[in-house]
Amino acid sequence: MNSGNGERGTGNGLSAEAKTEIRRLISQFPQRQSALLGALFVAQDEVGHLSPEAIRDVAEAMELPESEVTSVASFYHLYRFKPVGHLVIQVCTNLSCTLMGCGRMLEHLRDRLRIDVGQTTPDGRFTLRTAECLAACELAPMLLVGDDRYGPLTLEKIDEILTRYSEVRGPGPGAR
């Protein structure tokens, strides 16, 4: 989410600082399209999601059509087109995690957070999502809270994780 640095753009557009960072990314690649994924993360970090204004600003900074920027962003599950909670919890639902009980873990999270998949808690703290694969079969069943991996999960471990993140202000403890 927005770190609070620099002047924000109007609406849900990008600040001058974010646009400068995108131009810096472009300079690191022989082809500007190669910087697009990084540029989209800059925009998402700035605004909190990829708003139409942020997509427009990325396209403008990269001198690419908005349709190309949108199609690339919509291909990857790590990009968001609507606001989410301060912390996004993603439960892996691939075959390994399914066989190891991710359904029970997901149901427990729904009960504890009192939301369904795709929803955000009323306090704006957590958004619950599923992901087809989080590339950590050795941790099955597993989840991500922000960028932090947890697994193999138990119901008790989920309770500990939620307690830890509920007690910390800001992006979360980072420790597992």
Descriptive report:
The protein is an alpha+beta fold. The chain has two domains: 16-75, Arc Repressor Mutant, subunit A (Orthogonal Bundle), CATH 1.10.10; 87-167, Glutaredoxin. It contains seven helices and four strands. It has helices at 16-27, 36-47, 52-62, 66-75, 95-99, 102-113, 155-167, and strands spanning 87-92, 126-131, 143-145, 148-150. The chain has a four-stranded mixed β-sheet with strand order 2-1-3-4, covered by helices on one side. The longest helix is centred in the C-terminal third of the chain and has 13 residues, at 155-167. Residues 1-10 and 171-176 have low confidence and may be disordered.
The gross shape turns out to be elongated
SS strand fraction: 5-15%
CATH topology of the largest domain, anyone? Glutaredoxin
CATH class of the largest domain: Alpha Beta
Percent of residues in helical segments? Answer: 40-55%
Mean pLDDT: 88
Strand order of the largest sheet: 2-1-3-4
Structural class: alpha+beta
Short description:
With 176 residues, the protein is an alpha+beta fold. It has helices at 16-27, 36-47, 52-62, 66-75, 95-99, 102-113, 155-167; strands spanning 87-92, 126-131, 143-145, 148-150. It has a four-stranded mixed sheet with strand order 2-1-3-4, with helices on one face.
Secondary structure blueprint with pairings:
Layout: H1 16-27, H2 36-47, H3 52-62, H4 66-75, E1 87-92, H5 95-99, H6 102-113, E2 126-131, E3 143-145, E4 148-150, H7 155-167
Parallel strand pairs: 1-2
Antiparallel strand pairs: 1-3, 3-4
Helix pairs in contact: 1-2, 1-3, 2-3, 3-4
